[in-house]
Amino acid sequence: MSKLFIAGEVFHGAGTLGELKSIKGSKAVIVTGGSSMRKSGTLDKAIEYLAEAGIQTQVFEGVEEDPSSATCFKGADIMAAFQPDWIIGLGGCSAIDAAKIMWVFYEYPNADFDAMTKPFTVPVLRNKAKFIAIPSTSGTGTETTGLAVITDREKGVKYPIVSYELTPDIAIVDGEICASMPAHVTSNTGLDALTHCVEAFVSNIDNNIADALSKGGLEIVFDNLKEAVVNPDNITARQNMHDASFMAGLAFNNAWLGIVHSLSHQVGALYGIPHGASNAIFLPNVIRYNAFATDRYPALARVLGKETAEDLAQAIETLRSDVNNQSAIKDFGISKEDWERNLDYIANNALVDPCTGFNPRVPSLDELKAIYNACYEGVVYAEEVIA
Ligand SMILES: [Fe+2]
User: Fold this and answer.
1) Could you tell me the pTM of the whole model?
2) What are the respective helix, strand and coil percentages of the chain, to the nearest 5?
């Protein structure tokens, strides 16, 4: 027996933000990022819809990119004073992830953040409030995952907090909200969704439902990402990418990820490289590395009318350049000296990242370093001895 972990209720389609009008409750805290949700009018619309439902709202604005635990404590204090029965994460993944952890500290003010970095240790939630996720980017699928990524800047480490308790009660997947997303955010987040499809499909967890979602999500990303980048007001392409991101999130919430994410988490924390951008650099070479241990890639290649793992890797490289993304880590202005000084540190952290355990090939430290180095230079990863 296997249980499918999915958001409690899912509304998807252009205009579904209006579903907030039918929420039952009395008080909501909306957690959001910089100012894009206010500027686009989405925040005001959400407050208006909630007012129609008789719900009083307080807003926590200003969640930073890669939110810290300190931001989460701040939000929890506001919640403690206001006592909401709904927490609403509205905006990019950072806002929603921070809202999830604020929710934990609202319900458990004395919870130990460090202890929660161990998977599946978040205490039972929903004693005080339930959670609505309304994403404005199409990448992480956090609206249907039990994951929140919180960054410790002092240590230079990103902690994925993993617990099915964090899976939202309601997901609103409304592509209209994405129209204000800048092109580079559209491409980075879309390439993240693509990575979720590929990693979930080849992970060492067998799950037919996740497989179908991965294949479907991959096809939608290849058919729509470029259009969403080039024509940001094309709401059909926006909604398609939003659906694909949800599908990819649902796939990996049930089949997990692999070493693309392990490698990516480290360069994100240390160098601030956007998550989807580094994923798109690592993914083709990780496909080449993993192809020695799994025969799953050709099935994904066939979705694109291709045949082999190498075809899939190259198709991803083509899409990556079509949406103007970087092809090497050094493109982010990291000197060779700096890279070599930190290589052992990031490779060791990648080795113990929770995602590594689900990769189809068990990597050694030296192999992770070899993949890192090929991706730093932007060259094809190759092995002389075929496993
Ligand atoms: Fe990701």
Assistant:
1) 0.95
2) 55, 10, 30
